[in-house]
Specification:
Length: 120
C-alpha cells in the first residue's frame, strides 16, 4: 500500500510538473503573441502614416499648382488692365491739359446773376 501511495504521489507530482510546464508554455505563447501583435500594429501604423503622408503631399502639390496658376492668371490680367489705363492716359493727356489751360487762361468777366444794379 505504501508503494501504491508513493506511486500515486509520484504520479501527482509528475502531473503537477507537467501542468506547470503547460502553464509556462501558455504564458510564453501569450507573451510572444503580444509581442507579435505590437510589432504588427506598429508596422500597420507606419504603413498608414506613409500612405497619409503621400496623400498629403499629393494634395499639397495639386493645390500649390493651382495657386501658382491662379497667380499667373491674375498677373496677366493686371498687366492688361495697366496697359489699358496707360493707353487711355496717353490718348486723353493732351486734351485734358488743353481744357485745363482754356479754363484757367480764358476768363470771361461777367456779373453774377444775383447782383443787382445799384441805382444812383
Amino acid at each position: 500500500m505504501a508503494a501504491q501511495q508513493s506511486q500515486g504521489i509520484q504520479t501527482l507530482l509528475e502531473s503537477e510538473k507537467e501542468a506547470a510546464k503547460i502553464v509556462q508554455q501558455a504564458r510564453q505563447y501569450r507573451v510572444q503573441r503580444l509581442k507579435d501583435a505590437r510589432a504588427e500594429a506598429t508596422k500597420e501604423i507606419e504603413q498608414f502614416k506613409q500612405a497619409k503622408e503621400q496623400e498629403f503631399k499629393a494634395f499639397e502639390a495639386s493645390h500649390a499648382g493651382t495657386t501658382s496658376t491662379a497667380q499667373t492668371a491674375i498677373d496677366k490680367e493686371t498687366e492688361v488692365k495697366l496697359q489699358k489705363i496707360t493707353d487711355s492716359y496717353v490718348k486723353a493727356k493732351d486734351a485734358v491739359v488743353a481744357k485745363l489751360l482754356d479754363r484757367v487762361v480764358l476768363v470771361h468777366p461777367e456779373l453774377h446773376r444775383n447782383l443787382r444794379k445799384v441805382e444812383a
